[in-house]
Design a protein that fits this description.
The two termini are 25 Å apart. Helix 13 links the parallel strand 11 and strand 12. The protein is 43% helix and 17% strand. The strands form two sheets. An eight-stranded mixed β-sheet has the order 8-9-7-10-6-11-12-13, sandwiched between helices. It is α/β, with parallel strands linked by helices and 391 residues long. It is globular.
């Protein structure tokens, strides 16, 4: 395709500020501009579009992400160019769901836009592609020792069982200094992000494969060697690049997040499809879970609403621990799942090295985690079906 052929293309520009640039760069194209209003933007996604330019700075992360997700459900969708300064990783990750897309950093000159538009439009659309999009689950504990790592491992193991082939699921332990996932699984610590932080752009599929350790349960573990100074040595760019590449190469990515915030934390939370906050049934843990949920909703609005998971639920009708109803009252919101306490199964699996679903598949923990996966997957699919359908 040549620049001349752009004259026959239909282009939708989201954000009036891009109109002048588009008219210069895409001379002769049929350009339509829509304001950064949700209803108008979604209504403008009509059939026959060849290219869409999105002013991410003007549209904001929520509208930009919604537009991208709507286009991702459209067969033979238009090419998309995302334009902005300091784009959040969440938007870049959402763009990976599209067959033809690119990211341009503002400000840019018309020649740069022309070149990018020609390149995107030259790529063939993947008609009828059955390529699964990646789903990212972030898991964090409200307090230390509440079972967040155990939940992350069980999520990875059960999702790996559901996958069509081995190696379709990744568990990324971002507790870079003292992560425990490798000890729970008897796995290797191959993810050396400190060494890669000098040139994070060099982290590609080959290096990602070198970072991975395949565990017996059929998923890949990304864990770092013990290093008290790891959070100082590892750059945000390296962390986000690993997650970006993981989302390109796996059907599901589980991220075990540290409780304490780091420079990359909000980007990870904004980019996750699901954020699970794990709490045990103690007042300090519940108060901490409530605070974490409020902070995430306030500071990472581009992400999904956090899910609250109660761990180590007791079957006893009476006892010192709060009931689920009492916990929800303390949290001021409904919880999204509960996991029954089964200390023997959890301890046995840790000592043998592997997920509970491998060593104690009949444990109530396995059943409860499976129910959480089924519920959240069902809700995600229903939400996708309710997006505007584009013929």
């Amino acid at each position: 395709m040549t620049a001349t052929e752009l004259a026959r293309k239909r282009v939708l520009v989201l954000g009036p500020a891009l109109k002048a640039l588009a008219e210069q760069a895409l001379e002769g194209a049929r350009i339509e501009t829509v304001e950064t209003d949700r209803a108008k933007a979604l209504e403008a996604l009509h059939p026959g579009l060849d290219l869409m330019l999105v002013d991410a700075d003007a549209a904001g992360p929520d509208l930009t992400r919604e537009v991208i997700e709507a286009l991702a459900n459209r067969p033979n969708g238009p090419g998309v160019l995302l334009i902005g300064a300091h784009l959040p990783a969440a938007l870049v990750r959402a763009l990976l769901k599209l067959d033809r897309s690119d990211v341009l950093e503002a400000p840019l000159v018309p020649a740069e836009l022309t070149k990018a538009a020609v390149a995107v439009l030259a790529r063939p659309a993947e008609e009828g592609s059955d390529r699964p999009s990646c789903r990212c689950w972030a898991v964090m504990g409200s307090v230390g020792g509440c079972g967040a790592t155990t939940l992350a491992i069980e999520l990875a193991a059960l999702l790996a069982k559901k996958a069509a082939k081995p190696g379709a699921v990744a568990l990324v332990d971002l507790n870079l200094a003292y992560g425990a996932a490798h000890a729970y699984l008897g796995g290797g610590t191959n993810m050396r992000l400190g060494e890669a932080s000098g040139s994070p752009e060099r982290i590609d599929a080959a290096i990602l494969a070198a970072f991975a350790y395949r565990v017996d349960a059929g998923f890949d573990l990304f864990a770092s060697p013990r290093d008290p100074m790891a959070f100082d040595r590892v750059s945000s760019a390296a962390v986000l690049r690993v997650l970006e590449m993981a989302c390109q190469n796996y059907q599901a990515v589980i991220v075990d997040l540290p409780r304490f915030r780091h420079p990359w934390s909000l980007d990870v939370l904004s980019g996750a499809d699901e954020t699970l906050i794990v709490s045990e049934l103690t007042v300090p843990a519940l108060l901490s879970a409530q605070a974490f949920a409020n902070e995430i909703e306030a500071d990472a609005p581009g992400g999904r609403k956090p899910r609250l998971i109660l761990n180590r639920m007791s079957n006893r009708p009476f006892g010192p621990a709060p009931s689920r109803a009492e916990a929800e009252k303390a949290l001021g919101r409904k919880v999204d799942g509960a996991i029954t306490s089964d200390w023997e199964a959890a301890a046995c699996s840790v000592n043998l090295g592997g997920p509970i679903s491998q060593h104690r598949p009949k444990s109530k923990i396995v059943k409860d985690v499976g129910a959480i996966i089924d519920r959240l997957t069902f809700e995600a699919n229903r939400s996708t079906e309710q997006l505007p359908r584009i013929a």
